[in-house]
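Q: what does this look like with aspartic acid bound?
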Amino acid sequence: MPKIKLHTKIIIGLVLGAIFGSIFSISGSKLEISYKSERAVIDDWTEASFIKPVWDNGVKKDSVIKSFDKSLQVSVIKYFKGLKDKKDVILKFKFADNSERQFESINSVEKVKTIGTALRPVGDIFIRLLNMIAVPLVLASLIVGAASLTDLKHVAKIGGKTLGFYALTAVVAITIGLVAANLIQPGHIMSPDSKARLMETYQDDAKVKIEQNVSMDLVTFLVNIVPKNPFKAIADGDFLQIVFFAILLGIFLMQIPPGRAKPVINFFEGVSDAMIVLVEKIMYIAPYAVFTLIAATVAEFGFDILITLFWYSITVILGLTVLTFVEYPVLLKIFTKIKIRDFFRTQKQVLAVAFSTSSSAATLPVTMDVCEKKLGVPKKIASFVLPLGTTVNMDGTALYQAVAAMFIAQVYGFDLNLTQQLTIVLTAALAAIGTAPVPGVGLLMLIIVLKSVGIPEEGIALIIGVDRILDMCRTVPNVLADSLACVVIASSEGELGKIKPDGELVYEDSAVV
Ligand code: ASP
């Protein structure tokens, strides 16, 4: 029997996971109530009311403190969690046939779990393993990468080209997002009813994010890139600070006598190599982990929310598709001699891991492995360009932030003029740089973009529900652009390998632009 390739297994895991998750999806209305020492599952309710007894002239009366209709399952759960005097509250359900059921002494109100989410720990272990590797790998490989470039001028040249290329792709990405949002106008298609429902369901989540009070003025942003204590930066996983420290350490290792620099470089080279070998082993569980991750996401979030936010989601996904399948191939064609098909063929594993983990940092070890072994990018370039790109280069996130800002503005009835849209280009580019390469941070940094043009921040409540799924989608171009930059820089330095039609990699200078 022919051996199935790892990336094919991962894709099979992904598809089966989506099917499994939709079969065992968590009901959007069922609630599991734990009360006294019993449990009950409530389905098909039409209204849920929280009731509190009040005393009126010595007479005990029930007073309804909050009611929710059947589409607001999540709100019921959150409202209960937020109650201070949980034990005094009664939860009463009404049903279509006018019958009622009520519960007292409630311990918890939850969604009914299914096997769709039960396997998730396998996926969590996989993500944790990749994350465990990411920080030491970024640190070690950047130190080695910077130290192996011939001199300071060489570091500045490669660094300048890399940052220039990242800036170019980000600006084009944001422009694609703005054009898509202007053409489709997703916010104008949303009904006031859906808006009210989304705001009601997600306003508490939005508040939690807004309270984190993210803000970014350029000067503070630049100052904060310098770590006060690199060990703290490593412990906190602050990638921008780690990158700054690692590049400096690499550069100044070149300035001390080779006899003393060599053991340090050898040490970090050993760390980096070991991490890459470890990734290859971890990837054996990838198909199973991807299966459980996708199954859990589909089971928990389902596709319903995608339907409510259909036009917004389509606008983001369309933008990301143009970015991935138009902008990147064009750049590949302009800057390298690699065939577009060959490039994408080598990236399957990278893309599957990015999609299922929603984390550029977790995908970095895989990206490094693939870029060196399958695309023939020399280690010194991959070790420098990829960790830098993972940290600062987030085209997908930048595009998403532009569309999200436009969408929220449209829903709130703001007409953004050209100057405001140009402000979005700038702030989204910066916000994406400041976005940590882990799940969900793009949404948090979106608040900065909204603030910059005066769009109400609480508007993020409109898009939180669909963020997990769009995060998976935007992480794909985030990592793909890093691989692209890697081959472009290697090509421009005349140091790229060539892939033969049978997939074998050969190094020859004629392949180089
Ligand atoms: N999940 C994204 C990444 O890791 C960041 C984001 O957009 O939230 O690339």
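The first helix runs from residue 6 to 23. The first strand starts at residue 31 and ends at 35.
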